[in-house]
Amino acid sequence: MRTLCDPETGETLDQALVAGFAGPDTVTGEDLVEFHCHGGPAVVRAVLRVLTRAPGLRLAEAGEFTRRGFENGRLDLAAVEGLADLISAETEGQRRQAVRQAGGFIGGQVEAWRARLIQALAIVESGLDFADEDDVPDDGEAAAMGDIAALADELAAALVDGERGERLRRGLEVAIVGPPNAGKSSLLNALARRDVAIVTATPGTTRDVLEVDLDLSGYPIRLLDTAGLRRTEDPIELEGIRRARDRAASADVVLVLVPPVGEGVSRETFPDHPNVVRVGTKADLDPDYGRDAPDLTVSAVSERGLDPLISRLGWLAADQLSGGEDALVTRERHRTELMEAERELWAALSDGLPAEARAEHLRRAGVAFGRLTGRIDPEEVLGAVFSTFCIGK
Ligand SMILES: Nc1nc2c(ncn2[C@@H]2O[C@H](COP(=O)(O)OP(=O)(O)OP(=O)(O)O)[C@@H](O)[C@H]2O)c(=O)[nH]1
Ligand SMILES: [Mg+2]
Q1: Which residues line ligand 1 (CB under 6 A)?
Q2: pLDDT in tens, 215-229
Q3: Closest to 301 in 3D by CA, of 386, 190, 209
Q4: Which residue of 154, 193, 300, 385 has the fewest C-beta atoms within 10 A of its own C-beta?
C-alpha cells in the first residue's frame, strides 16, 4: 500500500496498491507500473490529473498497450486479433476460439509453415548460381520442392473448413422467412424472449430486416426477421421483400414458416437453400397445414414446440460451427493471405519453370505468411487491427 499525493499541494489522493513490473517480461515488453486505486470516478480522475501533469506522461491511445506488445515481439498480429475477439466474445464458443488465437494458435502454425518455406527457398536460391551449368534440378532441390508440394497440400486442407472459424466469430445466421402473417415476428420475439419486432394482424407489417443475437448453448446465433413474401405493388413492401430474399440467400440456415391453411395470404415459396427447416406456425390453433407438411410445429402464443426448435438450431450450430477440429482460420484476412500463399506455392511447383521464377513465387508465398502474422507490416493493416481496441488495452 502506498499513499498517492499531489506533489504540488501534498494533498492525499488515495491509498493504493502500486505494482512495478520489469521488462521485457511484461505484456508490452517495457517496464510497467500499475496503480490499483479505489474505483470511484473522482479518485480515478484526480490520480490521472496529477499523473498527466507530469512531463512525458500522457494517456494511452486506443490499443496502444497491445500495439507496443506487438512491436516488441510479445505477440503476433493474429494473436492481437484474438485478443480483440476475446474482449468482444459473447458466447462460450467464441471465448474458447479467441483464447486459442490470442495464445498464438494460427500464428504458431503459420510460422512453422514459413520456416519450412524458407528452408526450401534457401535450397532453390543456392542452386541459382549454378543454373547455367546444369539444367536438371539436383536431388536437394527435388526434395525441397517435394516439401513445398506437401506444404501446399496442408494449406489446401486447412482452408477446406466450411469457414467455421469466421462463422463462430460472427454467429450462425438464421433467417426467418414465409408469407405475410405467418408469425415470423412473433417467433422472433418468442425466441429472443423480448418484444423486438412489431406484431399485428395486418399482413405486411415487417419491412426492414431485424436482427437479434442469441446465445444457444454456447453458440452465437443471429436471428433475422424479414418481410412476408407475396406479390405486391407497394414499393416499400417490394424493397422489404427484396431484402428478405437477399439476406435469406446468404444466411447459414433458413426457417421457412408454414402458416395453417387459410392463415397465410400467399403460398409463395422461398427458392432453394441448402439448409432449410420448415416450421409450421400457430400450433395452438390445432392447425391443418394441407400439403405443406412442416418438419416441426411451434406456437409463439403457447410456446409449444419452441424447445424442440431451439434444440434443432443448437444442433445445426454445433454442426456448422464446431466441426471436428478447432478452426485455424478465424478471419477473412487470414483466409486471403493463406489462399495467396497457396496460389504462389502451386505456381512455384509448375513444370518447366526457370529457377528464378520458382524462387520468386516462393518469396511471395513467404510475404503472404509474413503479412498474416504481422512480420511484414503495411501500416494500414496494423492501423485497422489496433483501432478496434478500446483505450487501456
Ligand atoms: N394463435 C396464434 N396466433 C399467432 C401466433 N403467432 C402469430 N400469431 C398472430 O398472427 C398474426 C401475424 O403475426 P406476425 O408475427 O406479425 O406475423 P409476420 O409473419 O411477422 O407477418 P408480416 O410481418 O406481416 O409478414 C398476429 O395477429 C399474431 O398475433 C401463434 O403462435 N398462435
Ligand atoms: Mg413480421
Answers
A1: 180-186, 199-201, 203-206, 227-228, 281-282, 284-285, 299-301
A2: 887 889 999 999 999
A3: 190
A4: 193
